[in-house]
Design goal:
about 50% strand, 17-stranded antiparallel β-sheet, 2 helices, mainly beta, two-stranded antiparallel sheet, about 400 residues, globular, single chain
């Protein structure tokens, strides 16, 4: 199964359209208006020009990257418009909404600050909650499909946080009409997980055309080991009660990050990462655009059926100067899979590989230098190089490079 999304492995994922091969120059302008502590307005636009490495003419474009308003009533924040959300525990993570996820056209409700539940539930500690309804924009299939997502996190200890997330991707042009009752059940995993689903037998009520994902994330700081932090996430796609075991197998997706805050002195830190993406993650039989918006994955840009390992070292001699060196090794697959129940009772779900070709192997080294010369001025340089073996899942090698320089001026 494929996902209708474009990725550029050595790019730093940015809001709006991805970088194009060639030379790109751009200007971004951001605005923020606040009225007291109850209302804010945010906007961000980009104008850019780019020239491909061929004979075509240079082209200009303009985008509205962010445009949203947020109001707060007591401890509830209401946001309307195009805004970026991240449900990741650390930078570089996030199976549902990555730390660098694209902006969503949305209506969302969220707790403005953590709260405590009443009675014996108070032992859960600080609680945060968010619910989002988003339009995922134009796509070749099921254009303007929708996403209903919610996340609840608890922090029973200052060093521990655990979260649970539910995604429901549904609707879009050409989708099947469903009753309000069917949609409500479809939006409640505690009910839907125990149902036998009917998508084909027209003599009975058909279920909602939807792709659901369920997962959890965690963060734990080990003070006895110098503050080392473990962070990660689990995701299973299109689940039912018999498939929950696949959270921890090859059919689910898992990420792990080990953050070491100090190495040999106060200036050095490191991060180790490992990721495994299940073969059907973000994909679906009817909603073949996948969990994407405007051709970009909402979650990890590895996409389905991929693996990645990485080591990053950071040197920060002062708060105004730091250097990052990030090495990554990634394996992509274009294997074809079939997924089906083997029994009429729908208790044994199997995912079987039908065909495959050589994996595409990528090894990348990315260096970043950031210098803040004043409170209002920052310079950023990013250099990246990548060796690709079996490019496009065929034989051979290719080498890709990227250089990026940015000046950020704050007023």
């Amino acid at each position: 199964k494929l996902v209708a999304a474009t990725i550029e492995p050595i790019d730093a994922r940015r809001l709006g359209s991805p970088f194009r091969t060639g030379r790109t120059g751009w200007l971004e302008v951001a605005h923020r208006l606040e009225i007291g502590n109850w209302f804010s307005f945010q906007a961000r636009e980009r104008v850019e020009g780019y020239k491909r490495d061929d004979t075509t003419h240079a082209t200009q474009s303009a985008e509205v990257l962010l445009l949203s308003a947020r109001a707060r009533v007591k401890n509830v924040g209401v946001l309307v418009g195009r805004q970026q959300l991240s449900w990741a525990q650390r930078a570089g993570l996030g199976l549902f909404l990555a730390s660098d996820a694209p902006a969503l056209d949305q209506i969302s409700l969220a707790s403005d600050h953590p709260f405590t539940l009443p009675g014996f539930l108070s032992h859960a500690g600080d609680v945060s909650a968010t619910v989002v309804l988003a339009d995922l924009g134009k796509s070749a299939v099921r254009s303007h499909s929708e996403l209903l997502a919610y996340k609840v996190s608890v922090a029973p200890h200052s060093a521990v946080e655990i979260g649970g997330t539910f995604f429901n991707h549904f609707g879009g042009q050409g989708g099947r009409a469903s009753s309000l009752g069917e949609r409500l059940i479809d939006f409640l995993p505690i009910i839907d997980v125990f149902r036998k689903h009917n998508y084909t037998d027209t003599t009975r009520t058909l279920d909602v055309d939807s792709d659901k994902a369920l997962g959890m994330d965690y963060r734990a700081r080990l003070d006895g080991l110098g503050g080392i932090t473990l962070a990660g996430e689990f995701l299973i796609d299109d689940f039912d009660v018999h498939r929950l075991k696949y959270f921890f197998t090859s059919e689910g997706s898992q990420t792990l990050a080990v953050i070491i805050p100090v190495i040999g002195g106060p200036y050095f830190s490191a991060r180790l990462t490992a990721k495994h993406m299940g073969p059907i993650t973000y994909t679906h039989y009817q909603l073949t655009n996948g969990m994407t918006t405007h051709g970009r994955l909402l979650g990890d840009e590895l996409g389905p059926d991929a693996k990645s390992f990485g080591v990053a070292v950071k040197y920060m001699p002062s708060p105004d100067l730091w250097f990052d060196l990030d090495g990554r090794s990634t394996q992509y697959s274009n294997a074809t899979y079939n997924s089906f129940y083997t029994d009429a009772a729908q208790t044994d779900y199997q995912v079987q590989k039908v065909s495959s070709s050589p994996n595409e192997l990528r090894d990348a080294l990315i260096g970043t230098a950031v210098m803040r010369s004043s409170e209002n001025l920052m310079f950023r340089l990013r250099l990246a190089g990548e060796r690709v073996r079996n490019p496009f899942f065929s034989s051979g090698r290719r080498y890709d490079y990227q250089a990026q320089f940015a000046i950020e001026l704050l007023q």
